[in-house]
Design a protein that fits this description.
Helices cover 38% and strands 19% of the residues. By secondary structure, it is α/β, with parallel strands linked by helices. The model has no long low-confidence stretch (mean pLDDT 92).
Length: 327
């Protein structure tokens, strides 16, 4: 199935001239970096290729070269032959409102995909969508160079948490090995992605970690970022996605819940899990979604109640014998 989809996508790209690439709302490193790499690959093929990302590109990916080509607007169907959607479970996830009748190519590595496009290439075994686009590039006989290899390497490093997350597999290492041979420089990419924080970010980390609450015999850790923290330090919501990493290092923790106050009585909850705890199933319980070990949902209500009720509900899911890493 994957090989057939890859072949069909390659053929469609080759016969198309005007190509739009888009990815999901609240973009991450995998979606942003892979979009940039796909743009460069399309240019090499002589295609007119444009990138549309609705939401603001978060730190540190907003420092990547080439972002000036990214458009935050809507895709106008008459201007493109095909639309490639990266990591979008459905069209709504892209924030694009006018592409229902477009010829769509769906490339994703999430389990929760609606298979909505004309061509669907969904491979949950891929560590990152960048791994899939690298395979696509080989199928298209792209001449890889450092400009294409660097964003693809960045995407994989980002989505695997520097090869610490459970989606890290042999193919991720193999792909990165080949990308380094094509010119990606690991230490430079590491500095850009992980050693580039402003002092305010470290101060914010202190505020957030001071809210740490442990529950259910230390298996669930909850941290909270209140809007007042951001106002004091002049930090945006998009600068905070990696804060859960520190809390995941606590011995015995299976689930981290990161509450981010979006407005009064509304919180975006990021979930990070270890071992057999399934973040996606937890998120589904609250009408959210995501990966096996990284997911999220939005919830409304009084914070003092939420900070007790949600960890309790998560604990009930953990006690369910069917709540494991299999989907």
């Amino acid at each position: 199935m994957n090989e057939d989809s890859l072949h069909r996508i390659s053929e469609k790209i080759e016969e198309s001239q005007r190509i739009a690439v888009t990815s999901h709302l609240r973009p991450d490193g995998d979606s942003v970096c892979t979009s940039l790499a796909l743009h460069l690959m399309g240019k090499q093929l002589g295609k007119n290729i444009s990138i549309f990302i609705k939401d603001e590109v978060p730190f540190p990916f907003n420092h990547l070269p080439g972002l000036d080509i990214v458009d935050s607007g809507q895709i106008e169907p008459e201007n493109f032959d095909i639309v490639i959607l990266l990591e979008c479970a459905n069209v709504k996830r892209s924030g694009q409102k006018h592409i229902d009748d477009c010829y769509k190519i769906n490339i994703d590595h999430h389990h929760s995909n609606d298979f909505y496009a004309d061509i669907n290439w969904v491979n949950p075994e891929a560590a990152a969508v960048a791994c899939m686009v690298y395979e696509l590039g080989k199928h298209l006989n792209i001449k890889f160079n450092s400009k294409i290899a660097s964003p693809l390497y960045s995407a994989i490093v980002s989505d695997t948490g520097s090869f610490q997350f459970s989606n890290t597999n042999a193919n991720a290492f193999k792909t990165c090995y080949e990308l380094v041979k094509y010119g990606a420089v690991p230490h430079e990419i590491t500095d850009l992605l992980f050693n580039n924080n402003p002092p305010e970010k470290i101060k914010l980390l202190g505020h957030v970690l001071s809210t740490l609450k442990m529950s259910h015999n230390g298996s669930i850790a909850s941290i909270t970022m209140f809007d007042r923290f951001l106002k004091i330090l002049k930090i945006n919501h998009i600068d905070t996605e990696d804060i859960t990493t520190y809390t995941r290092t606590i011995k015995g923790v299976k689930v981290v819940l990161f509450f981010k106050e979006m407005k009064k009585d509304t919180f975006r909850v990021s979930i990070r899990t270890k071992g057999k705890a399934n973040a996606m199933k937890i998120a589904n319980k609250f009408s959210g979604g995501g990966h096996t070990h990284a997911a999220g949902f939005t919830v409304t209500g009084d914070y003092k109640k939420l900070i007790k009720e949600i960890p309790s509900a998560v604990n009930d899911l953990l006690q369910d014998k069917g709540q494991n890493h299999k989907t």
